[in-house]
Fold each of these.
Amino acid sequence: MAVSGSAPIDLTAALVMQPTALADWLIVAPVALCISVGAILMIVRHSTRLHAGIAIIGLVLLVVIDGALLWKVATHGPFTMVMGRWLPPFGIAFTADMAGAALALAGAIVALACAVHASADVDDSGRRYGFYPFLMLLMAGVSGAFLTGDIFNLYVWFEVLLVSSFGLIVLGSTKEQIDGALKYAVLNLIGTTLFLIAVGYLYAIFGTLNMADIVLKVTGAGEGAPLMTLAALFTLAFAMKAAAFPVNFWLPASYHTPKIVVSALFGGLLTKVGIYALLRVMIMLFPVQRDELSLAIALVAALTMILGAMGALAQNDIRRMLGYVIISGIGTMLAGVAIGSPSAVAGVIFYALNSVVVMTALYLTIGHAARLGGGWTLSELSGLYAKAPWFSAMALALFFAGSGLPPFSGFWPKAMLTKSAIDIGAWWLATAILVSGFLCTIAFARVFLLCFWRPSPAGMKAITVSAQPPSFAPLAALTLLVIGFGLFPEGVMRLSQHAADGLADPSAYIRSVFPNGAAR
């Protein structure tokens, strides 16, 4: 019997048939660049003198790419690129919107500052053990988490940044570092496991992992779908990642143990990825369930804020103090998630952008202070203003910003969040934001008065942390950003509001993924 010729196969229902526009490659360029530079660093792992230069060049390119990505999103709206040209929801999607692109750019800026600082602070031994490859792998994970449009791949990028952070936190292999790394690893692995369970549960319910597709299916889900269970699992997993009460004890027990430039990276970046994931899931995917959980989230936020600030007041070691300041800031951002209004979400995004820069700069500040003053504690440090007045002025500006005092950048997001709490009648939550800010102000005032303003006793010598002291240039650049955003906050406010509107109304996000309508 004759076999008839096969009919032509129509691939338009499965594949993107048009060539990918050159500008759309911007969305995967940050991850590809970081992995490529990390691979190059491994190839030249024995030529440690080249590591800093290669990494700095790579991170400069990352800042340029993320800046171009943010400009494209701001001018043309969210856009999507799928791997292998497979149409979503089956193709793995990278989707850039204002929230993800802005945080990716902020992360690239502080990573560049830390790489420049580390060029003198990380010795040859640290380079041989992989500081710069781990840094590039960390940025690949951070960039991927901010730009992915697939919730399972959000989990994958979390794993990438966790693996690299494990390598960075034990760099040096001291007993203190191993102890801190163990606490850091155990709690983060528990959080990651909860995240993976929630992702599997979500896929079992909806049969998709694409975030835009999930938004469409959540709105049509019946009352029998266990969406509250899903939302609670995601909230718990991301709260552990972000170090919210009562699962926050791992952060101050671990962030003070590695080299100060590693603490700066962790303090600036890692907890913000958890907050970003919480915003993406609870504001965009499960807004109804977030509203039902809002009181519980608000209570956790208030306890995180107040206990974090009180913990900062109780510390003698400044590195541990900054860990508690981070926790207090996480509580402030959780308050915005609990409120859930567009203005509150805008305040969270503004606070996250500010905290990425401020916390990185604060850790670099205490690293310089330890080098100048001979210790890490309030009882050991003194007389820094007399030794370095310009450095002391930068430190004071950063302390004001970390406390949320005007006219520095930390004031504006706290004002936005306080007003949002008052607008919905949550006076107790607004009070918690103000009280935690007041307590953090006292904690920073103690540091400045005792370490900078108090005269130093005769005969005190500076400690030797590395043969070549790090440059003040990265710290100065971050401080100028903080001062600039404080004096001229309108641009960041508009950006944050635009990002918040995109999360609250993801229609543009969905159109970028499904330009011809959702897949059947």
Amino acid sequence: MRLLIVLFIFVNSLAFAQKQPKSAAVDSVDYYIELSNFNIKTNNYKFSLAFAQKAIDYSKKTSNVVAQANAYATLGAIYFELKKYDDAIETYYKSVSLYNTIKPSSNQAFSYYRIGLCYMEKGDYSKADVNFDKAKTIYETIRIPNAIELLNLQKGIVYKAKGEFKSAIPIFNQIIAKPDSDDSFKTKAEALYQIGNIEMLNNRKNLALNYLNRAYELNARDKNIEQKAKILLSLSQVYERLLDVNRAYTLLKKHLQLKDSIAYLNTQKLGSEDYVQFKESERLKTIEQMDKENKEQQKANKVAKLISILAIALISILSLLSLSLYKNNIIRNQSNLLLKEKNNELQMAKEKAEKASKARAEFLSTVSHELRTPLNAINGITHLLLEENPKESQMNYLTSLKFSGNYLLTFINEILEINRIESSAIETESINFNLKLLLANIQNSLKELAAINNNAFTMEIDPNIPDFLIGDPTKLSQIFLNLINNALKFTKNGEVKVILTTNEINPEFTSIHFEVLDTGIGIPEEKIETVFDSFAQGSIEINRKYGGTGLGLTIVKKLIEIMGGKIKLESKVGKGSSFTFDLSFKIGIDAEAAAQQEKMTDFDDSILDGKKVLLIEDNKINQMITKKMVENKGMVCEVIDNGEDAIEAVKNKEYDLVLMDVHLPGINGTIATQTIRTFDKKTKIIALTAISLNENRDMLMSYGMNDVITKPFDPIDFYRVISQNLAKKEKA
């Protein structure tokens, strides 16, 4: 058994050494442990105990948990060799309590294994079994399968000691079945010995003799004299049962001789006085340590007492403060409750305001949409009548009707623009555009309005401003059209000037200062703060005299803020007004795309002549107006009032263009377009919708439509969109 343990220690030491980092120097704890192990080999246990104790003392000074655990394990091993099993158990438990605070290791498992062996020697097989299981679990965790075999042997011995032969025999048979060459722990001889004893107890004497003789033969290969003594005793007992008294006596005599030798060797390991001296020294060190700890505890108690006195004083002060705070808390809780109620009221008011705002936006959108359909009829019929050479007496009526229709359309568009801005449904673009050309076009479009009021309309542009910028030309156009239109409208026999200067410029960005000046009627000082509010004008008289919706400046202010600027106003009654704002732009390039975009502003309507157009429209008035506008340019128009028939018509006939109303009975225009695109990818399809273009253009294009015309139609825009799409088709 001793040889088995020595081999097992070697395997554990090898596994532990492989996991340790290599170092040029060995620390003192490892050095003392090596000296202790060396003295065990030379049978000098007195010095071995001394060096083990030094290892423990040094590890405590350095607070090295691993070293301290290893030192206790070394001392436990010495006690085990000296057969001081109670001392060994106590010391090994100190070792495993330290090992349990770090990663699992083979040393930790071996300590549990040794505790199990101690309990076996004491005859407490239940505790031995528990510690063997703990060792096995750790070996499996760190993947050292070779050690499991020795643990299995001990499990079998535990079963045998408990009389559970049926559980023990399979374990022993499994070990016996291994080839002799694979028996690295020399467990086979022990297994044969144990199963031989079981057979002897079962009164199968010949079978027992066979197993014990095989165990004796294997034992002869090593010098495990303790195992040999046990085998000789068992053989003597078997021969005695076989009534072979002479052989039984001979074997018993050999057993007793070995037993005496073993006893002599054990007495040579350590004298009884040496062991007593060591234990006394250990006891004195423990007493000294306890005395030291007691003194430290007394010192700590004094400090604790002082702290307690201070704590009592502090608690008294805090109690007074707590009483004061309690009263304050009552007042604060009452205030918090009141604030909470007010917050709830504000939250409810906020939710109501949001619902009201949403309802307002939905109402404005619905009303604007419903107004566009009849307005399309008014503007369309007016346009058609004006083209049919009306009588001079009718001309005034038609001109007034056209003006009223355009005014109403502008009003609806401005309501929708405010609605989109306030609902955050508007986004800025970043495209390349020619700023100077954009302003020139605006100036040309407003020349007539300037002439009506006899105003000088000029522009001063800083030459350092680049021609091409990257930004949102559409929103910039809206801003200038509203500001300049207002300036020209409220100025007579005066001057309107647009001034652009450079604030800052670098190779990538430029900041521009914009100013729109007029010498008009001006704005009273008390109205300046409200002039940017929705539907706000200077007064009712001004509204009646000059007209307008009162939404233009609101839109301008919000658009400038969306683009990252802030508008300022200075005005004096009778002297005029000045609107200023600053905007930053990335510098663009004179790209072909920009030139192409400028070119597309013009169109040639001669391309319309003779083209076949399919109009899908359910409203009879809109059918009449749109068909007439199409035929006036020489196109051939066929009218269908639903999406289903439109799909069949495109499938069976060839058209140059399809004008598709979005809102149709049955299948709507988007689904009809999507279906047509499954079999016809080439025919141009233009959406006709009464909803604002910026709200649904992307959605409509996603269904396969090529472009969008918003109702009510602007005749020029109507023909331009159709001409451009037919021109693209011919180029394709």
Amino acid sequence: MAVSRALTATDAGPSPLDIEPAGRLPSFGWSPRAALLVGVLASAAMLVPLVGGNGQDQWLPPELRAALVIFGATFVPGIPIVIALRIPGRALAASLAVALSLATTILVSQFSLIGHWWNPYRTQTVLGVSALVLCVAVWLRLPSRFRVSRNRYQNALWMDRWRATELVALVAAVVLFARQTSTLDYMAAGKFGIITEVGWPYVAGLVLISCIVAVTLTRSRIDHVVMAASTVVLITYATLLVPIATGESSFPTAFVHRGFITAIMQEGALPKAVDARFSWAGFFSAGAHLTSVAHLPDSQPFMALAPLYFNCVLAFPVYAIAVAVTGRTRVAWLAVVLYQLFNWYQQDYFAPQSVALVFYSTIIATLLWQFRCAPLPRLDPGVLGFLTTAPRRTLGLVPGFGRARTAAIGAALIVLIAANVVTHQITPLLVVISLGFFSLLGATRYRVLWLVAGLIFAAWFTYGASDYWMGHLYGIFSEVGKVGSSVTEGVGDRLTGDPVYKKMQYLRIGASAAFAVLGFMGWIAMRGRRSWLLSGALFGAAFLLIALQGYDGEVVIRSFVLSAPMLAPLAAFGISRASQRLWITRDGAVTAPLRWSMVAALAVVLTALGIVVTTNRGLNTAFEATTPELVAATDEFVASASPSSSIMSWSYSPPALGANTIGSQTPDIVFVDKPPCLADLGTCALDQQPSYIYITSQGMGMLEFQDGVTYDRLSEAITKIVDSGHYVPMVDKPTILILRRTDSPPIGEVP
């Protein structure tokens, strides 16, 4: 009986655990003193790499320096701000703390470049000392008596028999994952992706995780420690299989971002008219700042584990959104799990959109929390009454929050909006649309926040992105309303190349379609709830972007990525309702056999989804896996190449751009990935006579699977070039081949 209520029940109104009732002790989501202690440690971590200057390299490993600056940038000044605001929910408090901290680093770094005040060491000192002072000031102003929000399903015991067993099983899953990555033959990945190289240790680990999650979700009392640990291990399995095996980022575009960051570090300014992404350089500015203060040569230490970091951070707002929409912590944990199991898009790598999604999700989570907890004026009856009343109503104050503290939360949201605007091109549009829905439905106190967000976006687009829009103004407006064109570029044009690989793409499409259907069914099941219309509007908001921007053919994928934090809670709610129909008897009871059949079914489904997401995320391993060998050889090659030389790269190879290729004193790199050159690569290369021909395992895989150029044709082209006598191999390794024109100097001999 307890299991059925826990898994399927929902709250229509605010929970006493989410608000601070009038006349009672001040409430915090986390223990304020413990949180502020973390803030003090994070402030100190920001300053430790600065001690001793470059001499720090001699006694503190680069990985530890990187970890210290990330620790600081993640938690301060967000922690003292959130404690001062007395945000009551754990997940929401953590979301705001992390988002505000990251936003501060991004805004300060970006505007120090714009204002020509670039001095990372001085800036880091000011940030660290200010955060430390803020932590102390908030500590001194803490009330003498307060209470920390507790969840009624939380197990009061730190370690009981169930928890110990489940944590040991998770450790076993980590050991199995380590064994799998140590033996993974990622170079053998072909048209089916990495799934063909996955062995029994990986599958056994997935089964363990799935069983733990299934058992924990169906217990009468949710163990949040076990669920949090299970989520981290699940994210590790889903995102880090190839990065841990190779030691490098599994999404090679991260190396392009490494090149952007290196250029900012070297110039101390934003390069002009080089790449459109510099018009939204907040992420790159922050990356250059953190890389500099950590005394790292480049941002590579941040890259491999970035998916684990961003997905762990994003779990907090996803959980908070789910609690606000469904009212149940159990469904919220299921939403977090589903988010990871359908997250095949690989848009969580070392990139601006990763942090932009954190900002967007946190903004939505905060507004949904207020909508759930605050009193809401009634609407006039009927459709006409709704249409005339909803846009004019204003959400009340959250109990326990006065006007000043509510206004302060609004100011915090504006900070996140500003950081989002300078970080990413397309996510700010979604923020404006979503905030517009909140105002249109009368679901917020910040009725003009959508206008503020729009003005910030317009101001930055006019000033900060002037290099972009002056050259792309026609393209920007010509894409508006062309839904069919956006869908064709985002879906149809990508279904090309090798026939088997093309068919495997349908598995990705099917996974996204299934996720959307689950979310839609969950939304239908929510009819009559307070958040029904609003959640549906937020779910559909991301797909309105398809009518506004083509985004270089990626808007369809980005729409699914941006809708996922809202889609996952709806899907989880639909699954919880379906479980009620399948396993609960007419008298509302769940017998032991029924419960264990529920556990078994859930474990099987989660395992299957884990295998599917592994297949989908690893489908492009043949042309996305990056090895240390490839990176080292490429860096040395690009650094040695004369600025007057030309490099022909067979297909797109991001590691080549990851080296310093920005500026006039760099070689000219041409990527061959389009007809007519693809028809005969050998003849094309001999006709163009580049100084060097740069061929990588990534480029070969992309030509074979995406462009349909067979491996035999590629081998024949290489043989033809070498047999001509005009080119000789200069670098010949399993993942990289560089052919040098006979009159071009080899590596290390450039005058």
Amino acid sequence: MILILFSSIFIIPVLMGWGKIMENMWGILFQGISGKILSGILGISLIWTIISFFIPLNINVEAPSILLGLFSFFKNKLYQEFHQFSKKDFIVLSVSSLTVIFAGSFYPYILDHFGYYIPTLKWLTEYGLIKGISNVDLTLGQMSVWHIFQAGFSNFSDPFLRINSILLIIYGMYSIERKNWIHLCFLPILLLFSQSPSPDLPVIIFSLIILNEVIAGNRNTTLLFAYSVFVFTIKPTMIWLPILVFLSSVFIFRSHFKQLLLGSSILFLFFVKNIWTFGYPVFPIAIGDIGVSWKPDPEILKISSQFAIMKTYDMQYTYEEIQKFSTADYIKNWFSLEGIKSKINILFVLSLIIFIVFAWIKKKKLITLICISLLIKSIVVLAFSAQYRFFTDVFFVVFFILFYEYFDQKKSIIVFSALSLFFISILSFPGIIQKYIPSFRVGSFMTGFEKEQIYKPSTYEYQQYNSFKVGNLKFNVSHHYPYSFDTPLPAITPAYLFDDVKAGIFPQLSDKNDIKKGFIPKKMTSEEKEEAQKVINNIKNTDK
């Protein structure tokens, strides 16, 4: 807890300083501390994304970035802006921040933390963006902009990777500054994302902030659209947000095309980044092929697509069984999955129906545009992989619109207090959720409170691995463990190795002497197949 507090006190002024620099360049998104911080996050994320094409995001990048941010912070006397908080506001901010810091000090439990987030950060801090990295592990092809942002602060400022906790503190600050108290109702639920650098948290927070600004009448289309595209680059399932801002700029604000150029530039950078790491403009969709040599093998993409379809049904059916579904079966089985997933799916559809009826009754142009945007997003998600984690944000948006005018300060603080107590109890005593909601699998990975986390946030260490070589690639595989979160690079997860061997391909270095030159997929020779099979046999024997 103490170290997260120190990181917050250190990083927030840095972001404010960068925000001031960005505001001098492209204007003000909205006034206040949180406005500067959001501009700083956007600016520094874009700069680090460009830098990461050429060099790793190590201390040599972090140190000058911190110094420049702090210089701007003190030169412009931005610390004076904290005086705006009244005594009552300061108490609310302090309580919400301490709640966040306590929740953020627990052990990470989201499986993607070990299989996706940490490996991504390791590659970014040790090598930067690697061409064709998706050939080593397909999930690495995402290289979310949020992980680029986290990686840049992970060497010194935030070594325990609690940037999401810091973002939650900033979100509480925004709610208090803008006097939009309903945001405090969401904060306790989002505590569940505070232990890991999950991109789900920033996209929910940023989308609610941008949505709030649009509703409040913020007409800075240039930055609203730019930030909505930025949210899309963090997680493309948030496609509804740039669609909403674009539609609002056309049908409500009557904006000029020039005001969309900054956002369009960010989108172009996103496409370039994805082509560099994955081979196609939008991960994980194999659309927009420009013929780069490092794109993943079609068989690997096919396996990934089949897996995504099975995940839609919570792995309760095989791919072959799903292929035999009729249209009615697709719908019925999705609504009748065993466990909590079916309840979430039903609630999702009900939420959309309620919102459609609400929009029809209100007959307000903005609410109608929000409804259209959410429907477009929902159709896209349902068409590709209807996993509940891809439409979680819809619940927040629908609740936000329905109760926007209902929650004042008093009601919001009551809800915040009750929900904080509830979710902190779940984190501290995970046996509750493990007993009553056993189908909520991530709950089984929660470990509860340990006194050591009062000083520093809890983290895992494993550091057991074996080294192998296939073709020109020497790599490491975690020993008797499915993820490679602290395995030295280059590391390949066992599951992906099996997929490679099944497909008859294996990642190889473009230049055997330089990892920075990237990876390509290569059909294995008979000798390489023997080498790969020995690796598979070794892993299987270890797992016995």
